[in-house]
Amino acid sequence: MSDRATETHGLDALLDLARQTRAEPSPALLGRVYADATAELDLHDPQAVALPHRKKKPVAALVAAVGGWPAMVGMATATVAGVWIGISPPDGLVNLGGGYFYSETDLYFTELMPTLDGFLEEEQ
Amino acid sequence: MDMPYDGHEDASDEALLLLYGSGDRAAARALTLRLTPRVLGYATRLLNDVAEAEDVAQEAMLRLWRVAPEWRQGEAKVTTWLYRVVTNLCTDRLRRRRGVGLENIAEPADDSPGVEARLQEAARLRALDLGLAQLPGRQRQAVVLRHIEGLANPEIAQIMRISTEAVESLTARGKRALAAILAGRREELGYNDV
Q1: What count of other Cβ atoms lies within 10 Å of the Cβ of residue A111?
Q2: What is the pLDDT of residues B86-128, one digit of tens each?
Q3: Across the interface, do A30 and B41 touch by the CB < 8 Å criterion?
Q4: Cβ of A9 under 8 Å from any chain B Cβ?
Q5: Do B125 and A11 touch (CB under 8 A)?
Q6: Where are the domains of chain A?
Q7: pLDDT 10s digits, A45-71
């Protein structure tokens, strides 16, 4: 066998040997790699890490102030009903404001109970 | 590190990565055990420095964890992607290290009781590492990927972002150069024994 063939054969054997003797990672390295993996998972898991306090938007703050969305729905319903009654009042509804200022009926205050002094005088 | 059987041993690298991306910690364990040795082995051959190779291996795996949620199925092989990351990280380190002589390459740590065959094996591997370290960077990458990592030329072409023909040329030139470098160390390498 020529020197060159010997060298090639020897090199092939050496490369085969290198392939079979792969560097084994230390337990410490495996631990670090796995710790990185779980830390990355925790970054994307909302349950693993507490969310930072978020400032509420104005609308959300208003809704919270009146007692949440159920209360907000009740208020909205009452507002709509009030506007509707104002635009188209039912027949039976007395116009109290108009009646107070422009009524043709005179109103008098009547003393239904005499003062205590007068009552006592009568007793005597 | 205690990593019990978790039923993921038969899953492909990509299936495990997708599982990990959806929050599966068992998949993280399986990938750590499966891929870290390959990444470390390749980095060690390129850098000739175990501590630096460990840093590169950890960094490459970290990049894998980070890319997992956006991994697009079927687009690339996980190991191809990893080898490319390791190649780039090692190239950066070798550029920064330029000027460091071969004398700085560490002796293999082998404190185990002296078994002659094992010592000779270690000497051969050290000679190979010294020879690889003298090759130009691209030739070294191609030779290691082809002849030590055992990858096919088309995959090496993807890793190195060159054509398959360029890979063939690089590995052939690299192997010839390596044989020439090692020619003067026949006795040490035990060429006559093989």
Answers
A1: 7
A2: 999 999 998 887 655 444 545 555 555 455 777 778 888 888 9
A3: no
A4: yes
A5: no
A6: 58-120
A7: 766 555 445 555 666 766 666 667 777
